[in-house]
Every structure is written in structure tokens, then in C-alpha cells.
Amino acid sequence: MRAEFSLANLRRNTEKNGKMKSHKWFAYILAGLVGLPLALHGQAPSAVFDKEPACHTLKPASAGGPLPQNPDVLVLRYFSYGNYEVAYRGKVLLLDAFYDNSRSPIAAPTGLKESDITKADGIFIGHTHFDHYQDAPAVAKRTGATVYLGPPGLAYVRAQGLPENQIRIVRGGETIKLNGYTVQTALGIHMATDPKKSAAYQELITKTSTATEEQKKEQEAWKDKGMSNYLHTEDPLDPERDTMYHGTIVYVFTFDSGFRLVYSDTAGVLSGGERALADSIHADGGKIDLAILGYLDGGFSVNTAIRLATTKVKTWQPSIFLPSHHHDGDLLYAWPMPEMPTAPLFEAFREQAPDIRGIEPLYSSPICVNTKTDEFFVGNYVR
To answer: Which fold has domain 39-194+238-377?
Structure first.
């Protein structure tokens, strides 16, 4: 399969460069040799990952696990909601920061706690709802990392004692040059859920719940407190306190190697800012190697979620796609949140965006990407 992926990239890239007509026969001949070893940069594709310790452990780099040794290998790990870790060329970037701990009686059991995080070079928050950034101040104070986030989260990180020199407010449209990579931002749109449309799903979850009466009371008390805090900080008439249209940020990371990664932690509709940034990258001849994009619908309308995700995928045109916020299913919110199936999403991609390869991540599993070839290895069964 790795050979097939590389050959598909070869055909696609030569088409884009206008060279396919004279070389099409060569690519097709190669495609017939899928069973033969394919040497890339002097190595069989698997050798790059076989020799990489970071690709064979569940321990994240942020919690003391190994960083990738090969400068061409980037490692991602998923920890529920929109929470990802990126380890590459000696750096650890946290995309959102909300971990499994005792604050919530119904938190996703990822096996990673906020207190486990000891290394981070940057923390990038997609939007400032508690399930995406509540651990950011504690992690930043421990690691010295800067937290990048939209305006609605400013009061919270200050209240948690995060120093001003570790806070960077972003509003969309910034280009931030950092050591080893550049970050471009766009203002996104947060997912809206109509409670009336999700009523049937809520009723189903309530009727099929296996929680005891005591657990239900604990959950309701916790959710009531969480929603009270949320409603206290949100104000749709104040751009500094509005998450929906003024506090959701999409990030594009371009590493000095040329590898480019897009990150969005919400399943809202495609914003004009996102489209403009994607179009500007493509217009300059750039490509998106990997995109982490929201895949969710609060009413559990799979068709709606697929349509939104497919629109974004067609706009960004990544080589590799990973979902975010798809793996909830833990009743964290005041209304039940679903766990979205990825099979119908990937089937839609196969029909509508056949060049894009989708990966459904498991908690902690290393997703290793060769940044020169866009080949990948998913270590779902490593220990």
C-alpha cells in the first residue's frame, strides 16, 4: 500500500506540473510493479519507520516519550476532542490542551493527564471552550510554552496566572514566524447545534444510558456548573467574548522542511478566511500535506457532518486527513455529543476526493509521516 500511495502522488504531482502527457506511460508501468520494493531516498519505505523508536511506543513526547530521531519523520498522537500532539525535529507542539483527569466525572479515558505533560514548545488553541483549552495554562507554566488562542480565552488564562509573555492572542490573518516553522492563521466559524434538531438523539442517549442514578446526578451537577461558567464568559455581541465568529482559529503550520499541516478543532461551516488562506497557498504552488479537520454534528446527522467535512477537504486538498472532535461519545456537554463513524466519511472521500487518504486515530497511537514522501505508518498495535 505504501508503494501505491507514493505512485499516486507521483501521478498527481506530474499532472499538476503539466508533465503527465510525456511521462504517463512511465508512471503506469511503475504502478504495475506494486509488488516490488520501492526505494525512496536510498531506503525501502518501511525502513524509515522501522528504525524510529517514536513510532513504536504509546508514550507521547510531551510526557517524556522519545522524539523522532529521523529529521524526515513527523509523529502525531491523538488524545480526544480536538487534542493532538505533533513531534518533529526536536519540537513538541500541542494542538489544544484538555486531558483526562479528575475534573470531569465523564472525561474521555485517554490515559494521559495534565500533570503528565512536561514538554511543549507551543500550545495552539483552536477555540476556547473548556474541553479544548482548560489545561493550557497549567501546561504552559510547567513547560514555558507560549499559548496561542482567540480573544475569548484571555480572561481565563490570566486568571490561572499565566504570565503575559506566554500569551499570544490571535484573531485570524496573522503570519507568525517561529524557530523551525511558520504559522498562518485564519478566522474560522464554530459549529452551531440547534437543540431542537438534536432532540431525537438526546432522547435516544437518555433512554439507553447505563449510568446509575448516582452517576447521572453527578454528571448533571458537573454539566450545570460547566455550562454556567461557559454562559458567563460568552457574549455574542462582543467580539472579544464571542467564540462562534470571533474566537475560532484555524492554523496552518509550514515547517522549514516544506511540510505543511492544517489544524482545525471544530466542525463549523467553512469560513471565508479559511477559503482565502487555502486558495492563497494553492495559488502560490503550495500543497497541504496533512489536515486535521473537525468532523462532528451535535444532532448526530452523519450526512451533515460528512458534507461539512468534505467541503473543507476539497478546499484544503490535503494528501492525508485526520478528523478532530469526532471521538466524543462521553456526554461531556449539557447535551449528549455523538461519536462519529469515519467509515461513511472515508467512503465519501473515495468518491469525491479520491486522492486524499484518511486515518482514524486511536488514543496515543503514533501516526508517523515521512515528510519527504507523505508516506505514513499508523502504530495502532505498538506497546
So the answer is: Metallo-beta-lactamase; Chain A (3.60.15)
